[in-house]
């Protein structure tokens, strides 16, 4: 495709081996930068990003309650402007399901629940916490974040100290992002 664009401009790539090597290096730098920028799915550890990260815990717990316990996080991308959350589900969510999820998250925000962190040996933590990712990626001592008994998850990211700090949760889009995978985009107002 790049060769076609160059040809349209009346030019040509003179040294294709050198171009390929430089292009590959560029891809590696871009990939490393993206991994660093979105470590754990987070763009940064700002106050707003931290709020969105905590909201993903409430979102996952609400989806499990409304859609079923087999729902797992399959990826996330969180910035200071919004959250993007990927999960397994076989079909498009209907308006009623979206409203129920949104309402349950907002109910937990209004309840002003303390967000607690405890450190436990991994084997002990796995008996009480839900894990969306491969547990072997965690160390022997793990952080478990509890939002009452509503959400109990292994996590290494930053969190608010109380759900009342989140504001109003609003799902702005729900779409497919692959076979058997759905994506929710949401904001805090």
Helical element count?
5
Tell me the structural class: alpha+beta
Cα shape: globular
Strand order of the largest sheet: 1-2-7-6
The average pLDDT is 88
Using DSSP, what is the number of strands? 7
Number of domains: 2
Major sheet: 4 strands, antiparallel
CA distance, first residue to last residue: 42 Å
Query: Percent helix among the residues?
Result: 25-40%
What is the string of SSEs from the N terminus onward? Answer: HHHEEHEHEEEE
For CATH, the homologous superfamily of the largest domain is named as: Threonyl-trna Synthetase, Chain A, domain 2
Radius of gyration using CA atoms only: 20 Å
Give the name of the CATH architecture of the largest domain: 2-Layer Sandwich
Account of the protein in words:
The structure is a single chain. The chain has 189 residues and is α+β, with helices and mostly antiparallel strands. The protein has two domains: 36 residues; 148 residues, Threonyl-tRNA Synthetase, Chain A, domain 2. Helix content is 39%, strand content 25%. Strand 4 and strand 5 form a beta hairpin. The longest helix is centred in the first third of the chain and has 22 residues.
């Amino acid at each position: 495709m790049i060769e076609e664009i160059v040809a349209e401009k009346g030019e040509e790539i003179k040294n294709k081996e050198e171009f390929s090597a430089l292009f590959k290096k560029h891809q590696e730098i871009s990939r490393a930068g993206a991994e660093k920028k979105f470590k754990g799915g987070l763009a940064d550890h700002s106050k707003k990003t931290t709020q969105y990260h905590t909201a993903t815990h409430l979102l996952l717990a609400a989806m499990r309650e409304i859609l079923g316990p087999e729902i797992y996080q399959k990826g996330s991308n969180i910035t200071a402007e919004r959250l993007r959350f990927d999960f397994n589900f076989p079909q498009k969510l209907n308006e009623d399901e979206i409203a129920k999820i949104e309402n349950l998250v907002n109910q937990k925000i209004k309840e002003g629940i303390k967000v607690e962190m405890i450190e436990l040996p991994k084997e002990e933590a796995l008996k009480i916490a839900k894990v969306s990712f491969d547990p072997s990626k965690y160390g022997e001592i793990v952080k478990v974040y509890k939002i009452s008994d509503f959400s109990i998850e292994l996590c290494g990211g930053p969190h608010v100290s109380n759900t009342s700090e989140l504001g109003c949760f609003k799902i702005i889009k729900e779409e497919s992002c692959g076979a058997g995978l759905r994506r929710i985009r949401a904001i805090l107002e």
